[in-house]
Amino acid sequence: MIAMLTMAPRQSVKAQRIEAQVETDLRTLPQEKQDKLGDFADRVVQFLDSAPWSDDPWNTPVYLTITLRL
User: Fold this and answer.
1) Residue 1 in domain
2) What is the pLDDT of residues 3-50, one digit of tens each?
3) Model pTM greater than 0.85?
């Protein structure tokens, strides 16, 4: 499988519609920074879900789950 991935043409993958779920793990940060980044996951979701990633005429959804450990 790795050989197949390295032999594939180097093109970025694009989709028209991202449907993201983002979770943050802020436990390693000081409380002040945790408070400041409390809505960071929501801001990332908003960015990913609202940005036009290509001109896909079928509006194909791509489901994305991300955990950000800061």
Assistant:
1) no
2) 444 444 555 555 478 899 999 999 999 999 999 999 999 999 999 888
3) no
Runs of H (alpha helix) within 1-70: 2-7, 31-36, 40-50
Q: How many domains does the chain have?
A: 1
Which residues neighbour 70 within 8 Å (Cβ) at sequence distance 6 or greater?
24, 25, 26, 28, 29, 37
Residue 20 counted as domain residue = yes
Q: How far is CA 37 from CA 10, 41, 46, in A?
A: 35, 8, 15
Distances (CA, A) of 5 to 13, 64, 66: 13, 20, 22
